[in-house]
Amino acid sequence: MLYPIMSESRQVISLNGVWNFKLDENQNLDGVGFTEKWYEKKLENTMNIVVPASFNDLHEGKEYRDHVGWVWYETEISVHKNLLEERLMLRLDAATHTAKVYINGKFATEHKGGFVPFEVQVNDFINVGKNRITVAINNVLDWTTIPAGGYKDITLPDGKVIKIPSGMPDFFNYAGLQRSVRLYTTPKEYIKDIEIVSQIDGTINYNIRTEGKGDISVEALDESGKFVAKGSGANSSIKVDNPILWQPCEGYMYTLKVAFGSDVYEEPFGIRTVEVKDGKFLINNKPFYFKGFGKHEDAPVSGRGLNEAMYLKDFSLMKWINANSFRTSHYPYSEELMRLADKEGIVVIDECAAVGVHMSFGFSLIGGGEKINTWEKIQTMPQHKQAIEELVARDKNHPCVVMWSLSNESATEDEGAKEYHQELFNLARKLDPQKRPITIVTHMMSMPSNCQIADIVDVLCLNRYYGWYVQSGELWQVEAALKSEMDGWSKRCPNKPIIFTEYGADTVAGFHDSTPVMFSEEYQVEYYKANHAVLEKYPTFIGEQPWNFADFATSQGIFRVQGNKKGVFTRDRKPKLVAHYFKERWSKIPNFDYKK
Ligand code: GCB
């Protein structure tokens, strides 16, 4: 799906700003707004809300912040007649997690999946003059959604049964219109989609899909806007002489300017290749070492909402600490962030929103709850496939994306995991024009002895907490336990690259101790040293992404102190002691050829 841009043939109109907002009945998963048809007229008794942002932290009170179920957004716009002479689209960059859109009281579209854009042509809904757009959004996750999660029934003293979340992923369930809402126009005959695949000799293969009849011509421009190559036809190739490659930390970007009839669209692209070969992860044919983080889209006040200043700050801190990469744990991040990563040369493992696809995580981890074979019960497959289709459709041309992650910590230790994930792997491989490597990130109970998906993936991405959730406070035990697992992988998958996509220790900024004890800043440093002492010895260990870049909001629980505190930075982006350790460590690890 093309990102909305202005060009000589296209207009973009932002609908961001202050909207009207109303909670539907808390914990009534059906909501009363539909039975009472709130969308038919202007919403009553509303509060102000800002789009884009998560709604949760913008007003006070538990009933508001922890609202479960439907919420209603509404805005009124006035439209000039010229707009309706073009093809007019309404695009919502993210509505988390399920949305129904009404225009002037009429149902226009709906979408399930809270982290990717969707759009609808609105010429038949919009009038010249005043119009009302109403969006109902539901934040409920269950065993059919991606992310997945559970609910349990609670009976109140008055006999009323309500649902409360149970077994949700470890990040606060921020929701709402978290990214931009826009109208945009195209000519009636228009460019639908562009696929770009580059080779490092400067060959650019492209494939352009259009609606209507007309000739297609393309021009490649360099970063200064200078013309460097041209071609024609829908499916062809051009050659850029002496190309400047897209490199980690040097994100050189070209533009493919496509003209079709009266429509013009400009798609940014980089020239680079990625491949997994002989136990190495090659970028432009050179062995790359991942230094970076698992992240979240998370910030005070705006929650998971679009926050471009924070994106730039985070990338600046990543450069300061000598990092080169991150994973979009645990859902696709905003298009603006991905475009910035392209320009900044930050390498991205792009994860679809499949987190929580495990129906007895507690049982597997500590023997708590019931043992359920996830793959016999869970119904996420249709949504999971849609999530992969939408992710690849959105992000396929980004040079920053070097690998797809199809899920985080699903029940990969259970029988059936291989069949479930093989289908998704085949789908992603088929859809991606660049045929990037693909991974499935596994948790601590998915070991060399029982992991069902290790043979499918191109890279083993492991989330491991030796010295935290196991060997807690006993760092001297880390060596033996970690070595035993790593030796297991060397035996089972001798030539497969391994990245630690998560490892970390909760650390409350300002807690210090002369003897490093858990939660102190000193313990966090010692924790990483103990892990690195083992990992460094393995030639196929090709990347380290501590969990997490920054402290982040979670739901409440006895394991969380106002959120997850495993950040290398605090939530307001101040370095903890360990940040200085990583800055020093990573200054000595080059992007390329670290592991020969
Ligand atoms: C994990 C999860 C991540 C959690 C983290 C933790 O394995 O992938 O979402 O936040 O552990 O801190 O427990």
Characterization of this structure:
There is one protein chain. The protein has 3 domains: 12-186, Sandwich (Jelly Rolls); 190-272, Immunoglobulins (Immunoglobulin-like, Sandwich), CATH 2.60.40; 275-587, Glycosidases (TIM Barrel). It is 18% helix and 29% strand. It contains 10 helices and 30 strands. Helix 2 (308-320) runs parallel beside helix 3 (335-344), helix 6 (381-395) packs parallel to helix 7 (417-431) and helix 8 runs parallel beside helix 9 (521-535). The chain is globular, with a radius of gyration of 24 Å. 47% of the residues are buried. The chain binds (2S,3S,4S,5R)-3,4,5-trihydroxy-6-oxo-oxane-2-carboxylic acid. (2S,3S,4S,5R)-3,4,5-trihydroxy-6-oxo-oxane-2-carboxylic acid binds at residues 169-170, 330, 408-409, 443, 463, 502, 547, 564, 566.
